[in-house]
Specification:
This protein is an alpha/beta fold. The chain has helices spanning 13-22, 43-50, 69-78, 105-124, 174-182, 201-210, 233-243, 260-273, 310-326, 341-345, and strands at residues 2-7, 29-31, 34-39, 56-65, 90-98, 135-143, 146-152, 192-194, 253-257, 279-283, 297-301, 331-336, 351-357, 360-367. The strands form two sheets. It has a seven-stranded mixed sheet. Strands 10-9-8-11-12-14-13 form a seven-stranded mixed sheet, with helices on one face. The chain is elongated. The termini are far apart. The structure holds S-adenosylmethionine.
Length: 375
Amino acid sequence: MEKILITCSFGLEAIIKRELNDLGYENIKVSDGMIEIEAILSDIAKINMSLRCADRVYLLIDSFKARTYDELFENVKAIPWPDFLSEDSNFLVNARSFKSKLYSLRDIQSISEKAIIESMKKTYRKNIFSKSAEKVGIEIMLERDIARITIDTTGPGLHKRGYREDSVKAPLRENLAAALVDLSFYNKDRFLFDGFCGSGTILIEAARKARNIAPGLDRDFDFQKFIFMDKDIYKKAKVAALEAIDYDTKLNLLGSDISGRAIELAKNNAINAGVEEDISFIKRDFGSVALKDDYGIIISNLPYGLRLSKIDLDEIYRKINHKFKNLETRSQYYLTTDESFEKKIKRRASKKRKLYNGGEKVDYYQYFGPRPKKS
Ligand SMILES: C[S@@+](CC[C@H](N)C(=O)[O-])C[C@H]1O[C@@H](n2cnc3c(N)ncnc32)[C@H](O)[C@@H]1O
């Protein structure tokens, strides 16, 4: 069994734990921004392909105490690097450090790199390495003086699904959008509306989840080229993901935005994501979209920041308040950086969650509606 480390932004750990449970994993260790499981090497393909809310998937290759640079150097050198790297691998060393004696990331990085080269020199009997072959990201994670030496199996972050060609000014990360949907109790039988849909990320993620379209289906991962990974595992995971897609479900999703360009982008993204038939997009001001009071769900990532004057936001909040008055059975969820949101719309959220959109703190205001009546 191998140790696999999965990183995510703060606040999403429990969701990823649930995703891993659904994939059949037990004994899941959770800490801030990190989830640890045991799995066989070939599972790396399935995990990368399937997780909707995580950032990256790492393979742990060693861990040891490192309170001095000597300790770090000797232990990194002792790892059998030629098992993981060919003589031409383009390996890149990255470091992070938390509450540890060794904290200079640049030094941790360069000392580890020197140690890897020393180990390679012995096996390959040469001093210079071309780094002309596959990319291998090596991440040295130091926490409380324990160094964990890992290989990044993902490459570009898991939020990069491959369907977004272009986006609006303040796009939402796809993995955060997927988490917002997860936290909203959306399921394929309910109506979902985003009145500030921008490039359509929330609705696209909802539709792909409802259809069981694996988030990593349309992209490549770094592990595909690693010398120590079986070349077939990616293909097998892809075939399994394709077979699992639910083509029969009928979905009911609506997106609107005041910007025509945003609607154009959203439509294109939905086509790329294979869910264009599931979502209707219209160019419209939030206030003038008529919705039925039918136990549906609203999830929106609100406009915010310096680009907008205070008056614009006040007007938007007035419209949101109006929606609350007329839609008593709806569950409403709003993501914003505006910490005075509740005060401004004069409604206390059922729950407020602190989340991060690519490092920026945001709050998710959750207003739970009544449970839908069984028909
Ligand atoms: C933060 S962005 C949403 C980004 C989106 N979640 C995405 O992933 O691309 C906010 C959006 O609200 C839209 N907007 C601003 N005022 C609006 C209004 N009164 N009615 C509808 N949409 C509005 C903007 O055009 C912008 O696309």
